[in-house]
Amino acid sequence: MTITVRELVYYPVKGCAGTPVDSAQVLGTGLEHDRTFMVVNADDGAFRSQRTHPVMASLRVEVLDSGASLSLTAENVGPLRLDADPDGPRREVSMFDRPLGVAADQGDKAAEWFSDALGAKSRLVRVVPGFDRDGWGDTPGKLNFADAHAVLVASTASLDDLNARITARGAAPVPMNRFRANIVLTGDDEPHFEDRVRRMLVGTVELAHSVRATRCAVPMVDQTTGRRVGPEPIRTLSTYRREPEYGNRVSFGAKNAVVCEGAVKVGDVVEVVEWLSR
Predict the structure, then answer these.
(1) Three-class SS state of 178
(2) Residue 4 pLDDT more than 90?
(3) What is the pLDDT of residue 277?
(4) What is the pLDDT of the chain when averaged over all its residues?
(5) C or N terminus of the chain, fewer CB within 10 Å?
(6) Contact at 8 Å (CB) between 136 and 148?
């Protein structure tokens, strides 16, 4: 069995468009620059996501100068070049009604840009130096502003199986970007093999299983246009991928913690060190 890295993607601003790369450094919190920034409600600091603002998927973010600045583009507002400020004014932020502590506000220009792009009063914040947040699951690990885990892994085998089921119902297949994975694997194993991997070596990085990736409404958002176009793939996933262990939600992909930092590139061969027994 040979498994290799097919795609690498990081998401500089949580909920916004991803950046595909051929290689990446992987830190304890995930791919370098992944979810370092987050858009929040200007009034209460609660995070914004595609669940309520699907247009976020169409907001393009480019990391420049090794993270010192960002380039922001969108169809409905003009472009913005923004200097990142890890020492900006501190703002209390939260996710899923849980406080995350303080983040660094990125100023009024960024706030105005995201407010115009989303049609809702918003601020852009950045993780502060020393930000320390735990995940949960078999291997909790650390993370930035991802939902709860550092690295989301999915496989082409899983997507091919899903799309075969979708097309059998007369609907159109969906692309991998609907699932916003960080690392996409390809190889000659069965669908959802990523669920069963306890520990793996990817390049010089070691990842360990945290939980299966349960899904909300985001996979029903077209990641190019920022429009909700469901009911697929959630409708079909619900017929065979419900997870009683996770409140009977549907799953696709596996969330992992970083247990050894390093580098990874497209084409790297993946070594499964240990399989889950369950």
Answers:
(1) helix
(2) yes
(3) 84
(4) 97
(5) C
(6) yes
For residue 63, what is the enclosing H or E element?
strand 60-64
Q: Cis peptide leading into 244, omega within 30 of 0?
A: no
Q: Which residues have CB under 8 Å from 65's CB, separation 6+?
A: none
| Dist. CA 67–CA 63, nearest whole Å | 5
Assess whether pLDDT exceeds 90 at residue 188. no
> What is the rounded distance in angstroms from the CA atom of residue 26 to the CA atom of residue 22?
13
Indicate if the pLDDT at residue 108 is higher than 80: yes
Please state, as a whole number, how many other Cβ atoms lie within 10 Å of the Cβ of residue 168. Answer: 9
Rounded Cα distance between 170 and 149, Å, is 34
Q: Are 142 and 30 in contact (CB under 8 A)?
A: no
Distance from C-alpha of 128 to C-alpha of 126, rounded to nearest angstrom: 6
Separation between Cα atoms, residue 227 and residue 155, nearest integer Å: 25
Q: 218, 199, 222: which is closest to 153 by C-alpha?
A: 199
Tokens matching residue 216: 């909300």
Strand partners, 19: 10
pLDDT at 278 exceeding the cut of 80: no
* Amino acid, single-letter form, for residue 220: M
Alpha helices in the chain (DSSP H): 108-118, 156-168, 234-237
Buried b / exposed e over 247-256, threshold 16 CB at 10 Å, is eebbbbbbbb
Q: Residue 12: which pLDDT band, with cuts at 50, 70 and 90?
A: very high
**Among candidate residues 18, 15, 50, 47, the one with its CA nearest the CA of residue 31:** 18
Look up the pTM and report it.
0.97
74's torsion region: left (phi>0), alpha (psi -120 to 50) or beta?
A: beta
Report the amino acid identity of residue 185: L
- The SS3 of residue 55 is helix
Which helix (DSSP H) or strand (DSSP E) does residue 24 occupy?
A: strand 23-27
Rg (CA), the chain: 18
